[in-house]
Amino acid sequence: MTNNTTRLDHIVLWVADPVAAARFYETAVGLEPTRVTEFTEGKVAFPSVRVNEETILDLAPRTFAARMTMLPGSADSAGHPVNHVCLSLPADAFDALRVRLGEHGVPVSDIDHGLSGARGAATRSFYFRDPDGNIFEARHYDD
């Protein structure tokens, strides 16, 4: 990892229950939760889950919206989801995610082929929702 290139650091997702959301992302999606204990102890405002060594998803409680004062109107963003977040995975992790989501009863879309993304046309992709309604795309590319 180098500090002098542009990269995605984090995405903040609004969730009803950050601990339950962290558990979903750990058990159904396979992401590593961070700061959950600190959140439950009141030491941090929200927990996160690690996508990789460079990127996390922050799981902000909707009740935290009033504290979002970094720009005028920021507090109004609670409940205004982005269209979707895309996770790019190796082929075996893509397959394992689809199986894990099924084991957790999470509905998934059919598999698409050739959808365009940051690395060109994806080999396969599918969509699913987290318990708070955030939409995720999972995809993999042939390397």
Task: List the main descriptive attributes of the protein structure presented here.
143 residues, Signal recognition particle alu RNA binding heterodimer, srp9/1, 2,3-Dihydroxybiphenyl 1,2-Dioxygenase, domain 1, 3 helices, 21% helix, 29% strand, globular, GlyoxalaseI/FosfomycinResist, Glyas_Bleomycin-R_OHBP_Dase, Glyas_Fos-R_dOase_dom
Protein described:
The protein has 143 residues and is of the alpha/beta class. The protein has 2 domains: 1-64, 2-Layer Sandwich (Signal recognition particle alu RNA binding heterodimer, srp9/1), CATH 3.30.720; 83-143, Roll (2,3-Dihydroxybiphenyl 1,2-Dioxygenase, domain 1). Helices cover 21% and strands 29% of the residues. The protein has helices at 18-29, 36-40, 91-103, and strands spanning 10-15, 32-34, 48-52, 55-61, 85-88, 116-117, 120-121, 124-129, 135-140. The protein has a 4-stranded mixed β-sheet, covered by helices on one side. Strands 5-9-8 form a 3-stranded mixed β-sheet, covered by helices on one side. Strands 6-7 form a two-stranded antiparallel ribbon. Strand 8 (124-129) and strand 9 (135-140) form a beta hairpin. It comes from Streptomyces dangxiongensis. It holds the Pfam family Glyoxalase. Residues 7-141 form the VOC domain. This is VOC family protein.
